[in-house]
Write a structure and sequence with these properties.
This protein has about 675 residues and is of the alpha/beta class. About 15% of the residues lie in helices and about 30% in strands. An eight-stranded parallel β-sheet has the order 29-28-27-26-25-34-31-30. Helix 2 packs parallel to helix 3. It is globular and about 75 Å long. The termini are far apart. The N terminus is likely disordered.
Length: about 675
């Protein structure tokens, strides 16, 4: 395949900020007719069918991207669901190099890369493709503060795509395999006084493998987007005690007026190690108890103010690791106080704390319930929020950005999409086969929007189930294990956020195998949320999905088949395209994917036709939710409410809200 030789110069877009990072300013566009565009599915790329070199960076950039510098790149606390006071951000300029995967660490690096932006992105300052036979090297140094508290130091990565090995001062401290989940290593014994060298090496098969990757491909085209490799979320250091709080999970039960809190420690606890958990409402203590370490506790939250999109009320939660005078018989399992019993709970709740906490984390929770049940107005199964029917009016939210791809250019940028959607009359978004930084979900909790969270898909080219299919794909044991492991890690990382109300474990048959088993992993790990195990196309009867989900890109959305035992939802519809000159990623191709409007008035007409039908189905058939494609344009897709750079709304935001308003009026 011949690569396009002409480079696209975009320096003029960057001249507005003298303090901006050294953005990558050139890149080669992909072929107009990718070799794999018709031969394969699920964005798959045959090994050896594409070439490396510069990545296409497009001629557009968001207003937030222009403000990014090495000094301000993602500076907020990266784990808002379990926050400690002291930490060190390692975002900023690192050294980087790309070499063949079979070569050792290079003696000389290629230049600077801005972390946490992927090597293919413009904001990284590199904009180079990482091919499956390449290895990406990162290197930087750090020095811990002289009065760094705690006895241990943890090194955290928000996400690295795909397979990474981490070295500190030349010694391997750990490896990780997975593109969207956070991980950490205890690096204490590898550290020395003064400067420490940190090296990260990364390989990524991207679209030549079957690993979870979402919409990434080495051949961007249609609904498949530029590959993302390497570090793409925040890297940070954190001091902790030898024994510290490792995990905190809070699950509300509004029917009982309770909050169940699980606290897992980093190691075995002695009978004198306990955790004090405290709930506060605007600073006032409303519930508190003491539990033994590595146990579950329950806080009474009577007459709670319930969380909803209209009233996203949050309570504060703290967990403190304390020493207590051990209750009589604690530690003697046979003749003393039996572990994990009501007696043990009562004994530790009455225990006396001795001394100051050795570890403390801050969190929060929302009292809310997501379930299904009969809507008395329609007599049909509905989605219930806090035991009341609520139509989920959402968008397909891809979360991609022209200058930074999977990583939003800033926290403010990511937040802006949620704010726009709420103004446009939406109360839900479907986070489509990608995982956002944790700060995004924290903002969703605070701003008040429901989230259907997709699991990023992955498959070889012939492992995509089609509409006529009557059976599922066949995966290797290793492929299934990787998918299930990443699904479990995603749920573990995100289940603290009340805005997430549904796990979507497969989309449109891309790598769909054994949905019953995959969906049950999500349901068993987190029974407090709904599970949609097959969004679109192939619904397996009896597989346990909480909803029946169809996708329809017809000019007039088709009706889902009625279901007696679960709500019917339209997991994707819409897709009206409208190109806005001056705001296009590709300027050399016709990007007609679904329907295409001739101008803004035609766009309004087509959009309203689709929404009017959704409203009719909601009122007459009991349709419980709909997901419009999509929040913004993405690369070759031009069917967003917003342009890819978020600079132009294709209708006034008030008009979007007005069109959707009948969904929430009396049926």
């Amino acid at each position: 395949m011949k690569s396009v030789s002409k480079l696209l110069v975009v320096a003029a877009l960057l001249a507005s900020s003298a303090s901006a990072a050294a953005y990558a300013q050139t890149g080669a566009p992909p072929p107009k007719k990718p070799a794999n565009s018709t031969a394969n599915t699920a964005g798959y790329t045959a090994p050896g069918s594409t070439e490396g070199g510069p990545a296409y960076v497009g001629p557009i950039m968001s207003e937030w991207g222009r403000k990014v510098t090495p000094e301000n790149a993602w500076r907020s606390y990266p784990r808002p669901q379990m926050e400690r006071d002291t930490w060190m951000n390692l975002n900023g300029h690192w050294d980087y190099a790309i070499r063949p995967a079979n070569e050792p660490q290079p003696a000389a690096m290629d230049g600077k890369i801005l972390v946490p932006f992927a090597v293919e992105s413009r904001l990284s300052g590199v904009a180079r493709k990482l091919m499956p036979d390449d290895r990406l090297w990162y290197k930087r140094s750090f020095t811990l503060p002289a009065k760094w508290p705690g006895q241990r130091t943890l090194l955290h990565f928000g996400a690295v795509d795909f397979e990474s090995t981490v070295l500190v001062n030349g010694v391997v401290v750990g490896s990780h395999k997975g593109g969207s989940d956070p991980f950490s290593f205890d690096v204490t014994r590898y550290l020395r006084s003064g400067p420490n060298e940190l090296v990260v090496q990364v390989t990524d098969p991207t679209s030549t493998g079957d690993q979870p990757r979402g919409k990434q491909t080495l051949e961007p085209r249609g609904i498949w987007y530029t590959a993302v490799s390497g570090i793409w979320q925040t890297v940070w250091l954190e001091p902790v005690a030898d024994l510290h709080i490792a995990d905190l999970r809070a699950v509300p039960d509004i029917d009982k007026g309770e909050l169940t809190v699980d606290v897992a420690l980093s190691n075995t606890a002695t009978p004198s190690d306990a955790v004090r958990i405290t709930a506060r409402d605007k600073g006032k203590v409303i519930a508190s108890t003491i539990i033994r370490g590595n146990r579950q506790g329950v806080l009474k939250i009577p007459n709670a103010r319930l969380w909803s999109p209209d009233d996203p009320y949050l309570y504060d939660l703290t967990a403190e690791l304390v020493k207590v005078t051990p209750p009589q018989g604690a530690g003697n399992d046979r003749t003393g106080l039996p572990p994990m019993t009501g007696r043990e709970v009562q004994a530790y709740a009455a225990a006396t704390v001795t001394g100051a906490p050795s570890d403390s984390v801050k969190s929060y929770f929302g009292m809310r319930k997501i379930s299904t049940g009969i809507d008395p107005k329609t007599g049909k199964m509905a989605l219930l929020l806090n035991n009341k029917p609520l139509f989920h009016n959402g968008t397909l939210d891809q979360g991609w950005w022209p200058e930074s791809l999977l990583t939003p250019p800033s926290e403010e940028a990511a937040r802006s999409d949620i704010i726009f959607l709420k103004k446009a009359g939406f109360n839900m978004l479907r986070k489509h086969i990608k995982v956002e930084p944790a700060q995004y979900y924290h903002d969703a909790d605070r701003l008040g929007i429901l989230i259907w969270q997709d699991m990023p898909s992955g498959a070889f080219g012939d492992q995509a189930v089609r509409r006529p299919s009557d059976r599922e794909a066949t995966f290797t044991s290793a492929g299934m294990a990787q998918y299930q492991a990443e699904l479990a890690r995603m749920i573990g990382a995100l289940r603290a956020f009340p805005s997430i109300v549904m796990w979507v474990t497969n989309n449109e048959g891309w790598g769909q195998y054994d949905v019953k088993t995959v969906g049950s992993i999500a349901k068993n790990m987190d029974p407090s949320r709904l599970v949609n195990n097959a969004s679109g196309w192939f619904d397996v009867p009896g597989s346990g999905s909480d909803v029946y989900d169809i996708h329809t890109y017809d000019e007039v959305p088709v009706e889902p088949a009625p279901q007696a035992d679960r709500p019917i939802v339209t997991g994707e519809f819409g897709g009206v395209g409208l190109p806005i000159p001056g705001h296009l990623w590709f300027t050399d191709r016709d990007a007609r994917i679904y329907q295409f409007a001739t101008d803004k008035e035609d766009y309004r007409r087509r959009y309203k036709i689709k929404f009017d039908e959704i409203i009719r189905q909601a009122k007459e058939l009991g349709l419980a939710a709909s997901v419009y494609t999509e929040t913004s344009d993405v690369e070759g897709e031009l069917n967003g409410l917003l342009t890819y750079d978020r600079a132009v709304s294709k209708l006034p935001v008030e008009d979007f809200a007005k069109i959707a308003k009948p969904l929430f009026e009396d049926k």
